[in-house]
Amino acid sequence: MSDVRKTFRQAADTVLKQIQELEASVSNYGGDPDTLIHQLEKFQKDLQTLEQKRDLLAVDVPVDLLRAIYEGGNPDVFTAEVFERANRANQLSKGKAEAFTTFRDSLLKGAETCYPSEAEAYKALLPPPKKKG
Questions:
Q1: How many distinct structural domains can be found in the chain?
Q2: Which domain holds residue 126?
Q3: Structure confidence at residue 76 as a pLDDT band (50, 70, 90)
Q4: 26, 36 in Cβ contact below 8 A?
Q5: pLDDT digits 0-9 by tens, 12-64
């Protein structure tokens, strides 16, 4: 575990312990406001420290993932489904690009028969074909 995560974890553990202590102090309140005020001030200071350390982690979690987990879904299954959807969308885009390339080639062939000089002028403007491989 990285040092940043370790210090954040320690700060979070401290805050959680203080919550338990505050619960005990409030439930067994003996009338001494100074003790309670001191505990609350320390709790506020540690919460501010925790908030400052939070920015160091900077982990962005997609809202859809959080929603899926909240609804009882498995994060691994969610991630696999996202990749599958992205792969399908990629294949669809690839198919469209290939269809467009085929259409362009067909159109150029037709132009070569009907308008040979214009087709040659157009071909001269095109960049050289890319080598596959």
A1: 2
A2: 60-133
A3: very high
A4: yes
A5: 898 899 899 888 888 887 777 888 888 889 989 988 888 887 777 777 888 99
133 and 75 within one domain: yes
pLDDT of residue 133: 57
11 CB-near residues (< 8 Å, 6+ apart): 46, 49, 50, 53
Residues 71 and 47 grouped into a single domain: no
How is residue 130 annotated by DSSP? P
In terms of Cβ atoms closer than 10 Å to its own Cβ (0-12, 13-18, 19+), residue 25 is: middle
* Residues 64 and 125 occupy one common structural domain: yes
What is the pTM (predicted TM-score) of this model? 0.47
Residues 82 and 111 in one domain: yes
Instruction: Give the chain's radius of gyration (CA, Å).
Output: 32
